[in-house]
Amino acid sequence: MSDKVKVTIDGITVEVAPGTTILNAARQIGGDIVPPAMCYYSKLEGSGGKCRTCIVKVSKGSEKDPRPMPKLVASCRTTVMDGMEVQNITSPEVIEARSGVVEMLLINHPLDCPVCDQAGECDLQNLGYEHGLQKTRYEFERRTFERIDIGDKIQLHMNRCILCYRCVFTADQITNKRVHGILNRGDHSEISTYIQTAVDNDFSGNVIDVCPVGALTDRTFRFRNRVWFTKPIDAHRDCPTCSGKVTLWYKGEEVLRVTARKDIYGEVEEFICNTCRFDKKQTSDWVIEHPTHISDASVIASNHYETLKPLPVIQNNPQLQQANKVELEKTTKF
Amino acid sequence: MARKLLLEHINVPGINTLDVYRQKGGYRAVEKALKTLSPEEVVEEVKKSGLRGRGGAGFPTGMKWSFLAKPEGVARYLVCNADESEPGTFKDRYLMTYIPHALIEGMIVSSFALGANTSYIYVRGEMMPQIRILEKAIAEAKAAGFLGQNILGTGYNLELYVQPGGGAYICGEETALLESLEGKRGNPRIKPPFPAIAGLYGCPTVVNNVESIAAVVPIINDGGDEYAKIGIGRSTGTKLISASGNLVRPGVYEIELGLPVEEFIYSDEWCGGIANGKRLKATVAGGSSVPVLPANLTLKLANGEPRLMSYESLSEGGFATGTMMGSGGFIAFDEDQCIVRNTWNFSRFYHHESCGQCSPCREGTGWMEKVLHRLEYGHGKMSDIDLLVDVSKKIEGNTICPLGDAAAWPVASAIRHFRDEFEWHVKEPVKSLDTNYGLANYAEPIAKAEVTTGN
Predict the structure, then answer these.
(1) The CATH number, out of the four listed (3.10.20.600, 3.40.1280.10, 1.10.540.10, 3.40.50.2000), of the domain defined by the range B232-334
(2) How far off is chain A from B76, nearest CA to CA, in Å?
(3) TM spans, by residue (chain A) (predicted)?
(4) Which of A315, B23, B99, B231 would bridge B257 by S-S if both were Cys, CB 3.0 to 4.6 A apart?
(5) E strand map for B26-180
(6) Is there a contact between B367 and A49 if contact means CB atoms under 8 Å apart?
(7) Domain B339-445 falls in which CATH fold?
(8) Which of A49, A140, A163 lies nearest to residue B190, judging by beta carbons?
(9) Which one of A185, A192, A194, A213 would you mutate to disrupt binding with B, by most B Cβ within 10 Å of its Cβ?
(10) Confidence of residue A303 (pLDDT cuts 50, 70, 90)
(11) d(CA B124, CA A293)
(12) Which tens digits make up the pLDDT trace of B386-444?
């Protein structure tokens, strides 16, 4: 038996190591067939399975047991089997269910993007743009919370939270003594710290980076600028506590904020320490590398000059082109 | 008089004490299993009996036991799910209150079969009296040598603990129960891995309902084959039904599976008919999670045959014309009950009990509750009815645990069968506040046309 298993996602076959999840197998293929993930975070152990946006249809369980799985499964937590066949964007059922999940995520979200700091780099905004409805069917008051300051650098605004638990897993992973978790149950759940204790840790700022929405924001950057007016530049410094590899966000000659470097799925490459994030805001603190690559689809790329081209997987696969027609037209119309 | 296995001696004074329970033949199963049978033989007997899980899903218990992983040097656990909190279900509480030793005897035999040396009974937090009763019964059993080290000189050790829960409905879901038992927040785990592979403290674990475990006692006493003779088809044995609602005699009944629903409702041996001389409008056959059925479909299948109290017959016709056995919480509604109000009440429960972990259930249950509240209080719109169907579809099947399905089914089925009542609530917003829609045609014989569509 070979040590690789074969899995077919939307008609594209890939060989991956056993124990890989469907989502990670799809990421090895890349392109538009990768299911969106709001709560899964590859750097955080135990994350995933909660937001349900990454649900896919398993049309063939495995070579040994070819029965399809009865329900749609969360691709971030389902491991591949040899010979598994998965449908993501080629299955109307999945698209339908996913738009249902997006609707659920948005019904209590304030949709205050014009005054939200996350706008322009918000996973929920992108997801809503791709799968959401034009107008809401929810006619009730949305739930609201007071803003809470977690320490002097981070602000929590629960109105926007989608309860992905990423920050809880981060707090779990970086600290020994957890003071950050979920209170209450159901749709009253809220992220909180134990009796307003500040998360006191050198790496606490990373909860801002892992947050897919604008619920956890950097108090040193709040309302300073819109992200699409800033220029991201990769830089590094010799930091005794972390790797020191960061992205600096410039407006003119001023460094407005510092974040960890993010990959194409919005996940940080390495966690950075609070000193790098909050205290080193001079160009002279850093060694500049190069401008950060920003996805063509991102609003931040509006002032960048990179070649626009449709995604490689989509380009030469007629079946996927058909399934993804709307998105493709959106991308190629430039 | 139908045969009783679990509640045979329920009316004997002092049956909750060890001495009386012993006199009535209690703990015979422990002696038989530990002294004459091997663990594999006990599992085999349970498999032969065809016993199906009594907690709601109806998964064969023997099969569940045989799936338990048995790695060397790793502890195995048996956990009894006594977190009974489904609206309409109160059979486990009855069993634990009046005949606690039946559960403890079942726990000893089942633990022996699974090779567990530590077992837990996870009791819902609100059932404090039952927790005291169980603890007292465990102390009695321990003093008599049925628990502890070297039980009956066979060299088998078992410690049995009662763990009070916090009173959350979600902790009745087996993985949430295990999380809660471990001392964490009771959120359901993402499966796989299933508890049979990695359950409590990461060890192989079996989680069974109170009634399933108690049913092991008669299976061992009389043999699995004997037990399988009771009942009908793949629904073997007896089942406790908690009957409530507008019945002459609500209460906990032990029935042989296969009893016609009509006989169960109207016979004087059982519920004795609908109270105050009224007529039956609808029933919820297995606890609040299962689809609600109008009277005609409760008593008869879509093809006109009588419906029986069994796993197969109740689910006959799928969700179009059938329902489910569930946990046996049988609720009857008479002609003056409002289905809209009842659906709102159920959905309010699920909204309150959703754990908030996955988005469709967290947001969707609250949404349905608000829309139903609007319909009930006369602010509804016609489009709300289709909206509810759509929202329930978006929740169903897309959640981590079955609570999402349980919240969606009652709403979807109420609209499927009682759509005209919902529409009436929209058309007559003022009148519907103090008048009920009444029986309409829900109790009329099933029309011929429905027979063809039903099949």
Answers:
(1) 3.10.20.600
(2) 24
(3) none
(4) B231
(5) 77-82, 118-123, 148-151, 156-164
(6) no
(7) de novo design (two linked rop proteins) (1.20.1440)
(8) A49
(9) A185
(10) low
(11) 54
(12) 999 999 999 998 999 999 999 999 999 999 999 999 999 999 989 888 888 888 777 77
